[in-house]
Design goal:
It is built from 14 helices and 11 strands. By secondary structure, the protein is of the alpha/beta class.
Length: 338
């Protein structure tokens, strides 16, 4: 199956997903926490629904529901049986996930598709040993594109970050801001706009897609851009294990072989790359918006900061029974080959 075709068919998929399922034997409930127009809901969930329908000859479909729980509570929502599927951002749940921080590290070269495929493969070989998604069925892993600093006041140098109040996502994103001397304010992505609009924060670290997806062109008109990003965010698609176990064996097999795992992970990475392009285009089109590239001197200054964070995370992940260095090497190798 060629996953790329789903990007081109996203509008049709969205219409299909919005229609009542006529012939499906199983209609699953998806809990979503991002805005309806965000790529997660405009592309990713419709694509997954279409993939499941095609793999099962229409026997399995799903419906997206909003507002069932805040972002940090999504995994528990599925564990409790209040939804069949969801997406989580690992950084929102401090202390619950450690091995997943490995993909968030600065220094990886490649787009979100390459990173997401590498993420799934390294999870299969190394990270699954940490068993951090216990109780639910892990059906996909992915990262967003390289995260940059977005602020209303222009930032043209790394040193300006010291003393800034910056919305952070948790995980490595929070570590980076702290290491650069910023004060982290942790709120979920749907709260970013109001956090910046109210001046509760001076800036936010997010990928370029947020320029459009969370309307940052209105409240954070400047981007400080570091090649490869300051970090990458880590996400997981989850399914209720009870829901999956309740499906007929042939449907389970079809979903596992044709949809879940690498196919879903690759598709999600492709969507992030697509919406990153749209976020940059929105920035270029918006009045008063600008992108300031980090200087060579700033990049050199960031390297020792990044290395300290890398060393710290590798030690954390080792503590979970994972060979962190081997896993990181595999991510880099897979990304370079993808």
């Amino acid at each position: 199956m060629k996953i790329g075709k789903y990007l081109k068919g996203s509008l049709a998929a969205a219409v299909l997903a919005a229609s009542p399922a006529m012939a499906a034997d199983h209609t699953l409930t998806i809990s979503s926490w991002a805005p309806p127009g965000h790529g997660l809901n405009a592309q990713m969930w419709p694509n997954i629904i279409k993939m499941m329908e095609e793999a099962t000859d229409g026997k399995v479909t799903a419906e997206v529901k909003y507002g069932l729980a805040p972002p940090p509570a999504q995994m528990d929502l599925v564990l409790d049986g209040a939804a069949d599927m969801t997406l989580i951002f690992h950084g929102y749940q401090a202390g619950r996930f450690t091995a997943t921080k490995l993909i968030e590290l600065p220094g990886y070269e490649g787009n979100a598709e390459a990173a997401s495929v590498a993420y799934w493969r390294v999870h299969e070989k190394h990270l699954a040993a940490a068993n951090e998604h216990r109780g639910v069925k892990l059906i996909g892993l992915h990262t967003h594109g390289p995260a940059q600093l977005h602020s209303d006041g222009a930032v043209s140098g790394l040193a300006q970050i010291e003393g800034m109040k910056i919305r952070v996502p948790g995980g490595v994103g929070s570590d980076v801001v702290a290491a650069l001397g910023g004060t982290g304010i942790k709120v979920p992505a749907p709260k970013v706009y109001e956090t910046l609009a109210s001046k509760s924060a001076d800036g936010v670290v997010m990928p370029m897609e947020a320029r459009a997806g969370f309307k940052l062109t209105e409240v954070a008109k400047n981007v400080y851009e570091v090649p490869g990003g300051l970090y990458r965010g880590s996400f997981a698609f989850l399914m209720s294990q009870e829901t999956f176990d309740g499906l007929p064996a042939d449907i389970q097999k079809a979903l596992d072989e044709k949809v879940f795992g690498e196919p879903v992970s690759r598709m999600a990475g492709q969507v992030w790359d697509d919406i990153d392009v749209k976020g940059r285009a929105a920035t270029e089109a918006a009045e008063g918006n600008s992108v300031n590239a980090a200087s060579a001197e700033d990049l050199a200054a960031y390297q020792p900061v990044a290395q300290k964070i890398i060393d710290s995370v590798l030690a954390e992940v080792d503590g979970k029974g994972v060979d962190a260095a081997a896993a990181r090497d595999m991510i880099q190798s897979e990304m370079s080959a993808n």
